[in-house]
Amino acid sequence: MSVATYTIAGNGVRNFYSSSSSYIRRHNFPIIIPNIRSLSFPFNNSYVTAAVSSSSSTTSVSDSIGNSSNFTWDDVFQVSQSRSDLDGFFQKISLCNRGSEKRSDFIPFVIEDQIVGYVHIGFADQLSKFKDVFTITKDNTYGSQSGHVTLQSALKTPESRTEALGNVVKCLGEEVFPGIRNELYPVTSSYGGSVYFSLERAAAPYFGIKAYGIHMSGYVEKDGEKYLWIGKRSETKATYPGMLDHLVAGGLPHGMSCAENVVKECEEEAGIPRPISSRAIPVGVVSYMDIDGYRFKRDVLFCYDLKLPESFIPHNQDGEVGSFKLLPVTLVGDVIRNTEFFKANCNLVIIDFLFRHGWPSSHLPLLCPFDKSPPPGHGYPSKMRVGGI
């Protein structure tokens, strides 16, 4: 299956709310949102351009996302629909896309004349101490006036580069790279491209490496209503302990297809057998770019839906999930909109799921003027192939 990516740029179209607007569009129904900047959400044969409030404050949210949560499932079930607008969704999207104004603080990380990542200027100063591994070149060959980072020419093979970078990670340790997992990510310039070396997962954001993963929404239909299986992460997890998560999610290992990774993660995280997990449907891609200090996260999430039997009960196999609950999608939407309970990037994938499955329907009559077309000049872009899943 091929996935198409679409993007719409905000162009100051006027509407009755504000002089600055963009569209969230799925199928042929435009949704007008005020005072936003646009951010693309790719789908297969449909898309949403995520409207993000440029004035949203995310400080209180971002301060807490890496800490152990204190809420319980009882707190989740007590969340009510305290607001009926979409601002809570846009704030969660904004949370995963912070720091665009700091983009110039990063310089390209180049391997074999290909940009594979981006390194903060301050972090590059630390790397310059490892003279047998890194070279810092002060020119604008790759579009940055501050130069670029590359590896010493003696490191010619993926194996030698992997070993050298691994030694750097070990030397700097948890103090610089918290949450070291001893899990390697392949480093490429694009999805499916040549692997130049492999890098510790916890270090990937510090080198601006594009990381790929899968997220699967496991849902059940009962009496005409949809329910999502939601996991609560183990309190002993190094990252986002105790927060809400997808039924199944995980990084994409080198040499493994997305579909096979879904099957593997389904077994490990939820005890879903292959005859069921192999029916998961690829539904699109969500990507985001988030700058936080020296970290530049460039994540690409391949999204899947799996309709589960009513009788199925998930059981975690790897100790990374504390418990699961089956929640109505209406409650899940309200939890995302009104709390900080979910791991940040899960919000994006679930918002995608909610809109693809027609929720929140209460907003559609107001926000989807079916009888209107986009204003002149607000054109829709051509497709860009992302790759087969």
UniProtKB/TrEMBL annotation:
It comes from the Eukaryota. Belongs to the Nudix hydrolase family. This is Nudix hydrolase domain-containing protein. It holds the Pfam family DUF4743. GO terms for molecular function: 8-oxo-dGDP phosphatase activity. SUPFAM superfamilies: Nudix. Residues 211-352 form the Nudix hydrolase domain. Probably mediates the hydrolysis of some nucleoside diphosphate derivatives.
